[in-house]
Design goal:
Length: about 110
C-alpha cells in the first residue's frame, strides 16, 4: 500500500518533510514535542491551524533548527496562521523603538 501523500505546498507537507530531513519518525517527533500522534496527523492533514508560538519553539528546539531553516519555519508557520512570524513578533514586542520606526515608515 502506498504511503499517504500530503497536499503539495501545504503546511502538513512542509512539516512532514522537515521532520524526515531531521531523521525523526513521526511517532518519535510527536513524543519529543509532547503532543499526541493524533494532533500531529491533524497538523499534517490541515485539520488544525499550524502550531501556536509556544509549540513553534518546541519544534524549533526538537529539530535543532538554526539560521535560514529556522527563519523559513517561522515564516511558513506564520503564513499558515495569518500572523507575523514569531521571531519578528518577539523582537518587536521587546523593542518599542522599532515599532515607532515602522510606524514612521508606514506614513511615508
Amino acid at each position: 500500500m502506498p504511503k499517504k501523500g500530503y497536499e503539495p505546498g501545504s503546511y502538513g507537507a512542509y512539516l512532514v518533510a522537515l521532520i524526515k530531513a531531521h531523521n525523526f519518525s513521526q511517532a518519535e517527533f510527536a513524543k519529543r514535542i509532547d503532543v499526541s500522534r493524533t494532533y500531529l496527523f491533524d497538523l499534517f492533514n490541515g485539520r488544525v491551524k499550524p502550531p501556536a508560538p509556544e509549540m513553534q519553539e518546541k519544534i524549533v528546539s526538537a529539530l535543532e533548527l538554526t539560521g535560514k531553516e529556522k527563519d523559513e519555519f517561522f515564516n511558513v508557520t506564520a503564513a499558515g496562521r495569518n500572523e507575523i512570524p514569531k521571531d519578528v513578533f518577539d523582537y518587536l514586542y521587546n523593542n518599542a523603538d522599532e515599532i515607532a520606526i515602522i510606524r514612521e515608515r508606514m506614513r511615508v
